Amino acid sequence: MLTKVNLLLLALVMGFGMLLVQTSYEARRLYSEVDRAKAEGERLAADAQRLAAERHQQSTSIRVEQVAREKMNMRLIAPSVVQPVVLPASSAEGGKP
User: What distance in Å separates the CA atoms of residue 46 and residue 41, rounded to the nearest whole number?
Assistant: First the structure.
């Protein structure tokens, strides 16, 4: 009878030992996964900062003027190019005669 109890206790100790090893392995795996996620978050934050700086650079008036001139063939207005529009007197009053 005592041998059966000893064998049962030995089996329980072995089972709990294996459970302890598995649990500590899982804890280490999860800890390394958290570290990877933190590193990925820091990388994404740095990318977001870089993209915000690029967006700010692209939206400056000098950059907009450069793109308008080079890609859209636009040019600055000059008084010799401007043609004023003169409205008839009846149109100036809102279209009423």
Answer: 9
